[in-house]
Amino acid sequence: MPIRLTSRNACALPLVTVMACLGTTAGHAEDIPSFNMYGTPGLVDMPNARVAPDATLSTTFAGAGNQFRSTLTFQITPRLSGSFRYSSISDFPVTGSVDGVYYDRSFDLRYQLLKESQYLPSVVVGLQDFIGTGLYGAEYLVATKELFPGLEVTGGVGWGRLGSYDSFASTGERPAELLGSGGIPTYDRWFRGDVAGFAGVSYSPTQQLTFKAEYSSDAYLQEAAQGSFEHDSPFNFGVDYRFRSGAQLSLYHTYGNEFGAQFTIHTNPRKSSIPGGAESAPVPVAPRAPGAAADLGWVGQSTDGYRTTLAKAMQTDGLILEGLKLEPTRAYVRMRNTTYGLVPQAIGRTARSMTRIMPASVETFVIVPVQNGMELSAVTLQRSDLEALEHEDNAEMLARAQILDGFGLAPAAFEGQYPQFSWSLSPYLQFSMFDPDSPLRADVGLRAKAQVRLSPNLIASGSVTKKLGGNLSDTDRVDDDALPLVRTEKARYSAEGDPAIEHLTLSHYGRPGKNLYSRVTVGYLEEMYAGVSGEVLWKPVGSRLALGAELNYVKPRDFDQLFGLRSSETRTGTIPDFNGHISAYYAFGNGFHGQLDVGRYLAGDYGATVSLDREFKNGWRVGAYATFTDVPFEDFGEGSFDKGIRISIPIGAVTGQPSTSRNDLVIQSLTRDGGARLNVNDRLYEQVRGYHEPDMARTWGKFWR
Amino acid sequence: MSVIKQVLGGKSIASPKALAAMLGTVAMVLTGCGSGTEADQNRKITKQVLGTLKGGGKSAPSQVTQEQVQQAVATSTQPLILVNLEKAKSSTLLVEIGRNGPVQAFATSARQTISLQNGMARGTRGLGGDLMSVDLGGLPQLIASKSGGTVQREIRVLDGEDATLRLGFSCSVTSTRSSHKPVLYQMTESCQQSGGSIQFTNSYTVNGAGTVLKSRQWFGPHLDYIAVQHLKF
Questions:
Q1: Quick one: pLDDT band at residue A437, thresholds 50, 70, 90?
Q2: Is A300 exposed, middle or buried (0-12, 13-18, 19+ CB in 10 A)?
Q3: Is some CB atom of chain A closer than 8 A to the CB atom of B21?
């Protein structure tokens, strides 16, 4: 079962590499339990009831006998964890296998019902492979208790795979038929069928070493039936070595006849890199001399000197002064932030510079951050507060700061700043993982980008790629689709688009009114479509809720990805001209963020996409999404509906240097034609949200940094 | 500032952990060339990481020599301190670049600052794992009067998620006269985290006027202990 892993950034790297890079930052390694071959806390093949610290992100590679599994596990909340697994089973010649190797993906969920206490064990309930083909499908209830320091015992009962060896009871019928075309929860099977017990013990004489032994309730019936797999013994043994970074290396003896090995690395978004960052210091606040504020001698004189000095000071901090309006007691600054991923830091550094430069009578600073000509908010700060609170708790400054809608508050941009031209040339890496014919495909090449800002609000932008090598287009899969081919001709685009114009657009951004933001993009919008895309966003500056609407008129582009268009007619239907969505965005306030998009997708199918992300203050995001449309599951094909997992890594949190870039990784089911959306650049919500009160309050700790 | 540049050759003080973290992430950065802000940002990050790779790792524990100190004291017109980051095993000279009320800001030539109130730590910037702010409680009064007592204080840092971590401490302060001519007091401040397990002990050498001449203080979980010597007031 193929899955695509995509990344939208110049510095795209495989997930594996990213995880390896981050492996050193897991922090308190001693709190992380031993992981098993399924990449979840456990013994050898069996789970236990240990739970990793909140937000731990673990990557496991494990192999024994004919099994190889790679698993990504995220501790979603202190009690709930989720896993995504991609596995290969060799000597398993079932339908869908390639040269006897069967590739499969699976999802798990684990929830801790009971925390360990002096007399009671930790208890976890788990659903294994609950959403895929169910090959690894199992449910379990497991308890683990530490008897003496370092000595733990585990016992549990399992259904499905974990109820297949020497079962002692049965709870109803476990259906063998899949629901839909796979890919939807196998709820009709849960906790049904044969029940068997499993148990294990682990002993850690030192912090580095753990010895494990288990009695497995998995008989490996399907593997044994298909090929040369032999299940000689239910007893598995293992030893872990724990590195200082928390990484785990394990060696196993399994099934009575095989040897196995495992490597697990951990990272944690909450413990990333250098706390607070390693960027250089801001300038100190310069307090005014007593009585100086009464001096209005500068009023009426030229203010060009203030402008030049402030622009230079802000430039040192990586900020752009685009406009300045000075009143006797008030200064309005139009600021563009291209450096700080956490916006309060950009505001704080601007304010510090202003205390050193603005005439003493200016008491109120109104800092209006502007992006693509849109005033994103207006942060009003009293200069005497800045002077008094420079060395105090940042919460005191937050309490005195006013974050208002920036509509109409930005001073006009200085004359002569536009047009602005910028360009870049960088290598790129695009890859696709998990295609059964070739589990890892990649292209490398060069990407040239250019941008002309004709006015603050009007931007012409283009990006061209030239492939240097790779095998991304080698795939020869043909889909029997009931929908127009809106996405499944990807391989042809990839093969013929060399060089390719990734996009070439003219975009206009605006503020049609209070709380409102707008975008119109015209041109070659993305690699497969050209047309017009319009969007409006309603987002009050203090609101955790935003609503948006997008309408697109599109025509498919020629496969060579140059200037031509092709007919909307495809082998399986006509690509409709119009698609669009209305969207609701909501920050729950507890670190979770939800998004609901309802509308018409590229193939003309109607439906909704639900997304939920856990968002960390430093900008890390880990989430999942699913799209349900009116396409029947059997017409959608393999997987039944589009769904995926995504991780967004802020470059700033990883390098310790402030940055507005992020690296997005999306693990998606094979790109299909149902539930597909247009990939237009620079949608409004992501541009706006960081500058509004809810996000700023969350990241305010960076204000004085 | 020019004095400092000459003395230090523009070197910055960095902790080994910070270096390790940056080395670990070098593979993340795959960048090219260009103009404009995005390219600038990529270049800056690349430069930082490459700079770290090239020389930073080896030269991180740098020490200021006695000659450098003498030269700096002789030529500087501004207040001057010598600090020793014990964890990073590096020492450096900092010169005063600003004052806000009772707080003096001292800086290295590499844009790193340490803020002190009569020698007592109020914050750092640019060292990595910075001390963001401090509520000293009643400590300034005890130091000024060279007397013992108890104080409640709070130390604030950013954690790995960039969220503000507020650590409260109960401290007991003692004062001993260690020298009569000149008059010097040796003061210690032993602190225990309220509702936590962090402990630290700061020491201050205070003159007859209640001015801190040198100290060894805990600057938070990441920076650990930093010794500060006031070379010029």
A1: low
A2: exposed
A3: yes
What pLDDT does residue A703 have? 96
Would an 8 Å CB–CB cutoff place B52 in contact with chain A? no
Q: Structural domains in chain A?
A: 27-267 (2.40.160.40), 293-416 (3.30.300), 420-455+457-695 (2.40.160)
Give the mean model confidence (pLDDT) for residues A133-145: 90
Residue B204's nearest CA partner among B156, B147, B150, B155 is: B147
Domain span at residue B175?
66-232
The dihedral built from the CA positions of residue A465, A470, A472 and A475, taken in this order, carries a sign that is positive
CA nearest neighbour of B163 among A576, A603, A389, A270: A270
Q: Which two tokens stand for residue B181?
A: 């001519």
Task: Name every residue whose Cβ is closer than 8 Å to that of residue A471 and which is 6 or more positions away in sequence.
Answer: A438, A441, A442, A443
pLDDT tens across A339-394, in order? Answer: 999 999 999 999 999 999 999 999 999 999 999 999 999 999 999 999 999 999 99
pTM of the model: 0.87
**Cross-chain Cβ contact A278/B97 below 8 Å:** no
Instruction: Decide if B150 is inside a domain.
Output: yes
Residues A448-498: pLDDT tens digits?
999 999 999 999 999 999 988 877 766 655 556 678 888 888 878 888 888
The rounded distance, in Å, linking the Cα atoms of A599 and A580 is: 6
pLDDT value, residue A42:
95
Given this model, what pLDDT does residue A673 score? 84
Nearest beta carbon to residue A424 from set B38, B107, B164: B38
Instruction: Please report the residues numbered 339 through 378 in chain A whose beta carbons come closer than 8 angstroms to any beta carbon of chain B.
Output: 339, 342
* CA–CA gap between residue A13 and residue A45 (Å, rounded): 30
Residues near A577 by beta carbon (within 8 Å), at least 6 away in sequence? A553, A554, A555, A568
Angular region, A118: left φ>0, alpha ψ -120 to 50, beta rest: alpha
Mean pLDDT of A330-335: 96
Residue A478: count other Cβ atoms within 10 Å of its Cβ: 9
Burial class (CB in 10 A: 0-12, 13-18, 19+), B58: exposed
Residue B139 counted as domain residue: yes
Beta strands in A328-409 (DSSP E): 330-337, 364-371, 374-375, 378-382, 402-404
Of A269, A338, A423, the CB nearest to B35: A423
pLDDT (tens digit, 9 = 90+) per residue, A32-70? 999 999 999 999 999 999 999 999 999 999 998 888 999
Check CB contact under 8 Å for A701 and B166. Answer: no
Q: How far apart are CA B27 and CA B40, in angstroms?
A: 19
Tokens of B170: 């109960």
Q: Is residue B40 part of a domain?
A: no
Tally of CB atoms within 10 A around A507 = 20
- Closest alpha carbon within chain B to A393: B133
Is the CB of B42 less than 8 angstroms away from the CB of A656? no
Q: Does B38 touch chain A (CB under 8 A)?
A: yes
Q: Does B192 touch chain A (CB under 8 A)?
A: no
Total residue count of chain A as it appears in this document: 705
Chain A residue with CA closest to B100: the answer is A287
Model pLDDT, residue A497? 85
CA distance A159 to A157: 7
In this complex, the residue of A24, A274, A701 whose CB is nearest that of residue B164 is: A701
CA A397, chain centre distance (Å): 31
Encoded tokens for A116? 């360990």
* Residue A258: its H or E element: strand A258-267
Which CATH number characterizes residue B71's domain? 2.40.360.10
User: What's the gap in Å between the CA of A344 and the closest CA on chain B?
Assistant: 12
Cβ–Cβ contact B158 with A under 8 A: yes
Total of domains in chain B? 1
Instruction: Report yes or no on B9 lying in a domain.
Output: no
Segments in chain B below pLDDT 50: 1-31, 49, 51-59
